[in-house]
Amino acid sequence: LLSFQSMRMAKDNVLVHKINGLETAGSLSILFSDKTGTITEGRLSVVEMATGNVTVFNALSKMPSNLALDVITGIGVNNSAVASDGAIIGGNSTDRALMSFLMSSNAVNSMTKEDVRAFNAFDSNRKMSSVTITRDGNSVTYVKGAPEKIIERCTHYIDENGEIKELVEKNYLTSYIDAQAGRSMRLLAVAKVDGTSEDAELTLVCVISIRDNVRKEAIDAIKEVQNAGIQVVMVTGDRKETAVAIAKEAGLLQSNDDVALTSAEMAEKSDEELKKILPHLRVVSRALPTDKSRLVRIAQELDLVVGMTGDGVNDSPALKKADVGFAMGSGTEVAKEAGDITILDDNFASIEKAILYGRTMFKSIRKFLIFQLTVNVAAVLTCFIGPLLGENVVMTVIQLLLINLAMDTLAAIAFGSEPALKEYMREKPIPRNASIISKEMFTQIIIGALYITFICLSILFLPPIRNLFGNVDTTYLKSALFATFMMAITFNGFNARTSHMNPFEGLGRNKSFLIVMFAIFAMQFIFVTFGGNVLSVESLSPMSWLICVVLAFLVVPIDMIRKAFTKKSKE
């Protein structure tokens, strides 16, 4: 069953590494998801640049030459991505977006990386990266990162004319940043300082607005996941205002009870306080890798089944700790190794498919168990009660082996091919401590097994049923019993495949099921007709076959009556 679903999922950009993770995905009760590339498109683009006095430029060509040079150095040289032969190699999504902007502005050739003396890649704790270059014989250090981390250290700025002025009033700039964040913009500040110390007072070069649109399909997928009773929490490195704007657009923040926290706000709260907030939590902004691990631990202590997405090396501890780790296809090999499932296209819609397939697989396992346990119980009861009633061998060993072939190998193919139905996403998650065999399943197994046992033993021992076959010997009746048993368990397969009242609903969606059921019918007909002394059977007359079919088919309406009573009791 697991293998069948895994092969299907690969076609939908979902690659299963650890097979148990697929089953668990169907039971998720909370999902912590990255934003960039998962909920959003991941195609970042530079929209505009603003100076310290909020003069806005949408192109480098409109800037004074010295300001443009500082921007090019501040985002191009201070960058983990590299432009080579028209392609961008390495770096994170933000760095690649900045490099793409420079390439489209024909500014890549203006970068002088030969003058680089030191480069410090982006640090998630400091929320910035830096580079020190030599210009005109002097050292200049550029920093790039979170505006709130950089602007508070800026004492001067470069204005629209390229002149350095004192940055006295920051409220106007802060209001601009908040407004841009409210438009779902990701914001970066670029600043510089003479010398090699990046901890000195800075001169602001510009604030850059970068846009990453929400995926249209992600909005629908998030709604589907929420309707399935799964809490979705967006975890992002963006500032709170940007994260909140995107969360509202994506449908994560919908009511006044929904909560958005920053990493700093989360750090101030104790585990007990966070446990109280968690059911209402929808956004975590400015998140650190350690925040992900803490969120997983807190959720698991609340007995929730936790899913976590990640793509970086720092995400691997959280991916391992989560009940299901979703690694992104564009992420690092370390993250993929730590995850249970890889989302090849990084799309939240594919995560929704993984959850649907997980639920489908869990349903298929339950269907298979209903089918198999009904056969087992009926076979045991028939072979146990028969000798008590005076017939030592009701079914031979070879006949029981043929039954075992039908209920194990062929049934696994039939139920493993069940389609993933959207209706499964309208059900609540299965609790972590829930038994795989529910009370309803147990009732169905017992009723089905008792009927099959009763009707098969009636062929041998109950005169009204036995006389239907005429004046025949015991071997003939045992042949009819075997045929009835095989057909009854086959018809019961239709009962097991759906909880709906109509057991034949949507049969065309699972061709493998129909083929397997037909194969079992054909197999038992061939065995009974041509088995002879080898299988201890006699060929049946057309009338006897008709009687066997009718007796076997009655298992279907009997289960429909059970479903009707169950539905009425639930109401």
Structure description:
This protein has 22 helices and 19 strands. It is 49% helix and 18% strand. Helix 6 (171-182) runs parallel beside helix 8 and helix 14 runs antiparallel to helix 15. With 571 residues, it is α/β, with parallel strands linked by helices. The strands form 3 sheets. Strands 3, 4, 7, 8, 9, 10, 11, 12 and 13 form a 9-stranded mixed sheet that branches. The two termini are 33 Å apart.
Shape: elongated
Percentage of residues in DSSP E strands: 15-25%
Q: Whole-Å distance between the termini? A: 33 Å
Number of strands: 19
Instruction: Specify the structural class.
Output: alpha/beta
The helix content, as a percent range, equals: 40-55%
- Rg over C-alpha atoms, rounded to the nearest angstrom: 33 Å
Oligomer: single chain
Mean pLDDT: 89
Task: Please give the largest β-sheet.
Answer: 9 strands, mixed
Q: Please, how many helices? A: 22
Low-confidence stretches: none
Task: Please give the structural blueprint.
Elements: H1 2-10, E1 14-16, H2 19-25, E2 30-34, E3 45-50, E4 56-57, H3 65-77, E5 82-84, E6 87-89, H4 93-104, E7 116-123, E8 128-135, E9 138-145, H5 147-150, E10 154-158, E11 164-166, H6 171-182, E12 185-194, E13 202-211, H7 216-227, E14 231-235, H8 240-250, E15 259-262, H9 263-267, H10 271-277, E16 281-285, H11 289-301, E17 306-310, H12 316-321, E18 324-328, H13 333-338, E19 341-343, H14 348-388, H15 397-416, H16 439-461, H17 463-466, H18 474-496, H19 511-530, H20 532-535, H21 542-553, H22 555-570
Parallel strand pairs: 2-14, 2-17, 10-13, 14-16, 15-16, 17-18, 18-19
Antiparallel strand pairs: 1-19, 3-4, 3-13, 5-6, 7-8, 8-9, 9-12, 10-11, 12-13
Helix pairs in contact: 2-14, 6-8, 7-14, 14-15, 14-16, 14-18, 15-18, 15-19, 16-18, 16-22, 18-19, 18-21, 18-22
